[in-house]
Amino acid sequence: MDTRFTAEQDEIRRTVRKVLAGRCGPQDVRAAAGTGAGYDPALWATLAGQLGLTGLALPETYGGAGCTTTELALACEEIGRCLAPSPLLSTAVLAAPLLHALGTDAQRAELLPRIASGELTAALAVPGTALATALGLVRDNRGDWAGGGRAGGIQARRADGVWRLYGEAGQVLDGHSAGLLVVAAHTGGFARSRTLLFLVREGGVRTRQTALDATRPCARVQLRDMEAELLGEDGADVTGALAAVGDRAAAVLACEAVGAADRMLERTVEYVKRREQFGRAIGSFQAVQHRLADVYVRVQAARSAAYYGAWATRHGERVGGLALAQALRALRTAAGQGIQLHGGLGFTWEHEAHLYFKRAAGDELLFGPAHRLRAHAAGTARLFTETEVAV
């Protein structure tokens, strides 16, 4: 593994950071998250339309830049530093790879160029609150999370050559504003039980939900006799594609969390250098230095894991879940220590440290707590399988 970044990768990071500087302060983030869309449309037009972040990892054939997951992850690391709300995660990290992996030639040609240009946003909708399971991050996704032939979940039925969907998805990232929904649904009953993906271009009852992390807007999507288009062909390996996208998404999310943790550490260090108590800066006390040193070690270890996770997606290794577990713990620690070391100021809801703490807690709720991410990775690798001992 070559750990050096290329000139192009460094330029991506510098450009994204420059665009976000001065436009994504804590007040800007709160204001954008409080709008109906949940993000700043002008900033999104810059990130998607001018910088082309939505097409960064898409092939040039479809209007993308033809880069890898690493470049997209580095861009998301910069976005994570300021917690800029945007539909980049739902569109470019979750939905677009599924369209590219499973879509027919006609579907790819129609939808991917619009996503690459920023014209179209998309969201992945899975039944209930099963996003982490559907992506194969916390357990095997070949189970009955999509409905399993029972009542509940999202069911797909075909009549007169038309697919129709019935059910509800409870946690759809940017589902209230997305122009396209990629919906996972169960079909076939018990005899031919399987999970398929469908495209819903408009309609459905979409309700934005109150979320712990307002910078990650989620919606409840109700599908009532909704006409839908099958993504790709019946018989495609949907669960395999979802697991591959889940690993890639975890690596990107890990880099995003590392960016947030690094920024929180920077802000805390800046504060303890100027906050005085007993006639001296509190940063000069050894106890404070030790606490920040521990945070620094966690952030650097998480950064190494996140970068490796992004690099590994091109080489057949799936370590994104482990990288995400490391990064979420680092972010939670950095935000928690930041709140405490800011003292009475840090404990107020208005302080930006709470935005970072909520991001860490919210991502664990959406994509799986760190201990379950690690447990699933260990189980997949069979690290703790019992072995027979000859007596």
Care to describe what's here?
It is an enzyme of class 1 (oxidoreductase). Keywords: FAD, Flavoprotein, Oxidoreductase. The chain is an alpha+beta fold. The protein folds into 3 domains: 7-87 and 105-117, Acyl-CoA dehydrogenase/oxidase, N-terminal domain (Butyryl-Coa Dehydrogenase, subunit A, domain 1, Orthogonal Bundle); 123-236, Butyryl-CoA Dehydrogenase, subunit A, domain 2, CATH 2.40.110.10; 244-380, Butyryl-CoA Dehydrogenase, subunit A, domain 3 (Up-down Bundle), CATH 1.20.140. 49% of the residues lie in helices and 15% in strands. Helix 5 packs antiparallel against helix 6 (105-116). The longest helix is centred in the middle third of the chain and has 37 residues, at 238-274. The chain is globular and about 80 Å long. The protein starts with 6 loop residues before the first helix and ends in an 11-residue tail after the last helix.
Summed up, what is this model?
InterPro entries: AcylCo_DH-like_C, AcylCo_DH/oxidase_C, AcylCoA_DH/ox_N, AcylCoA_DH/ox_N_sf, AcylCoA_DH/oxidase_NM_dom_sf. This protein is an alpha+beta fold and 391 residues long.
Distance linking N and C termini? 43 Å
- Give the fraction of residues assigned to helices: 40-55%
CATH homologous superfamily (4th level) name of the largest domain: Butyryl-CoA Dehydrogenase, subunit A, domain 3
Low-confidence sequence ranges: 387-391
